[in-house]
Specification:
The protein has 18 helices and 6 strands. The chain is mainly alpha-helical. It has 3 domains: 141 residues, no CATH class; 120 residues, no CATH class; 119 residues, Helix Hairpins (Orthogonal Bundle). Strands 1-2-6-5 form a 4-stranded antiparallel β-sheet. β1 and β2 form a beta hairpin. The protein starts with a helix and ends with a helix.
């Protein structure tokens, strides 16, 4: 019952009342420090009161709980060294990481905890000591891996075509080699090494991604932008396409160019995920994800309807015409592609002035230009501008949360020998087996002195103003004008004394 009450208090809107009641209930807890403490009992979702405060973005309760966990090590003048208990905060030995819970929640208030002590210092320590070097190394390794795979695709085994052309539009001069003919020369063996590296890399990607999907859940793993959801979809699809290409090569199945082209596109697009570790490029990857999965996805449905309708109309109009004179709409797939190019104004309207064009082509193209180019395309630009304005205010905050998610991901996947635990063991200071983070806090005495001066000046202005109001009420009917001028003089005098005080303060500082 006590643990349930603690969880309810974390969700209370009255933060100060909740803190006082929280402290009162814990005062009756018999096992304050043991494993049976009320603060360490999780709810049905596996969240302790401390983790629940982080997920809900309750910064007041979080700071209150952290104040209870800190230990002042020593103090000398304005410097104070504090040890913060990292229990439930550090993700090193936690199955359900506190940092991962914060970045994966949908509440924006929870991300404000990343700027509070000691979370800010812990994340900065992890990222600067281990996260950034490892991530840069993995980024370089991935780019070299993609260069290797690209070269294998460029120099894939091809041979000249010996068969006859099936039509006048057939332009194929090379075909794919059979498996027995693909690995005969020294260049082929060198390409084989690159292909083996590519297949091994795809298998490693699947081995690393599948356990996280099973642990977190597919909806949360792929749906969270901060956790890199869309890029996880890209990299898993990339690995699967690599294996499909390998099977087609081993079985000598023609058409490997289809999965191979998809793999090249997805693999190089995933470089944007690598760019998130750099402050210069990271916020822009967040903005691109927001635009693609926000405005662009909704707009693509409308664009598909318009393109489908007008492409069908163009195909019907040119179905009876000679494709050699105007071949942009000679079959239905080409009509769809040409209409898509017209929609994005990549090409102009196809025309051949040596032949007569159908009259309905001019009418349909006029309507298409008005609806697609002038209306829908400018609507998309306006929508993206609005999204850019909204995301620009929080892109740095989202990028910092993404850095936290990347740090937690690297900490989970790298071996323990490459990522030691952060902080100081409490046994060095007689605090048990818990781990602590040492933070130095500097108190500026001039800041407190300035605040006292400011409060004194405000009180002086407030007293002068109250005295003037009292005089005005007493003599309202008798000396209204006279007292009003006196009030103005009094306020101007106080304002002058306040100004003089601020000048003294400015010179001293």
């Amino acid at each position: 019952i006590g643990n349930t009450v603690l969880h309810i208090l974390v969700l209370q809107p009255n933060k100060m009342f909740a803190c006082h009641m929280y402290s009162l209930i814990l005062s009756y807890d018999r096992n304050k420090e043991g494993p049976g403490s009320l603060e360490l009992i999780p709810n049905n979702e596996g969240l302790t009161p401390f983790k629940l405060a982080g997920v809900e973005g309750n910064t007041v309760m979080f700071q209150y709980l952290m104040q209870k966990r800190k230990h002042n090590l020593w103090s000398f003048g304005p410097l104070t060294t504090v040890l913060y208990d990292l229990t439930e905060i550090d993700s090193w030995a936690e199955d359900q990481s506190f940092l991962e819970l914060i970045v994966s929640t949908k509440k924006r208030e929870a991300r404000q905890i990343l700027d509070l002590t000691p979370v800010k210092e812990l994340v900065s320590l992890k990222w600067n000591m281990y996260g950034r070097p490892y991530f840069c190394f993995l980024a370089l390794f991935y780019i070299l891996y993609m260069v290797c795979f690209t070269m294998c695709c460029v120099y894939r085994p091809l041979k000249p075509r010996t068969g006859n052309k099936t039509s006048s539009r057939d332009n194929t001069i090379y075909v794919q080699k059979m498996l027995q003919e693909s690995y005969m020369t020294y260049e082929d063996e060198l390409r084989l090494v690159g292909e083996l590296i590519t297949v091994i890399g795809a298998a490693v990607i699947l081995i690393l991604e599948i356990p996280d999907i099973l642990r977190v859940g597919a909806a949360k793993y792929f749906g969270q932008t901060i956790l890199g959801g869309p890029f996880h979809i890209i990299v898993i699809t990339y690995a699967c396409m690599i294996l499909v290409t390998m099977v087609m090569r081993l079985t000598s199945t023609t058409g490997e160019v289809v999965p191979m082209s998809f793999v090249l596109m997805l693999g190089w697009c995933n470089v944007m995920y690598v760019a998130q570790g750099f402050q210069m490029l990271g916020p822009f990857t967040i903005m691109i994800q927001k635009m693609i999965f926000g405005d662009l996805m909704r707009f693509c449905w409308l664009m598909a309807v318009v393109i489908l309708g007008f492409a069908s109309a163009f195909y019907i109009i040119f179905q009876t015409e000679n494709p050699e004179k105007l071949g942009q709409f000679y079959n239905y797939p080409m009509s769809l592609f040409t209409t898509f190019e017209l929609f994005l104004t990549i090409i102009d309207g196809p025309a051949n002035y040596d032949v007569d064009l159908p009259f309905m082509y001019s009418v349909v193209y006029f309507a298409f230009a008005i609806i697609a180019t002038l209306l829908m395309l400018n609507l998309l630009i306006a929508m993206m501008g609005d999204t850019h304005w909204r995301v620009a205010h929080e892109r740095d905050e989202l990028w910092r949360a993404q850095v936290v998610a990347t740090t937690v991901m690297l900490e989970r996947k790298l071996p323990r020998c490459l990522w030691p635990r952060s902080g100081i063991c409490g046994r060095e200071y007689g605090l048990g087996d818990r781990w602590y983070l040492r933070v130095e806090d500097r108190t500026d005495p001039n800041k407190h002195k300035m605040m006292r001066y400011t409060e004194a000046f405000k009180a002086q202005d407030r007293d002068s103003y109250d005295k003037g109001l009292e005089k005005l009420e007493i003599n309202r009917d008798i000396l209204y004008k006279k007292e009003l001028s006196a009030l103005s003089l009094s306020r101007s005098t106080s304002r002058t004394s306040s100004h003089r005080g601020w000048e003294i303060l400015r010179r001293n500082t």
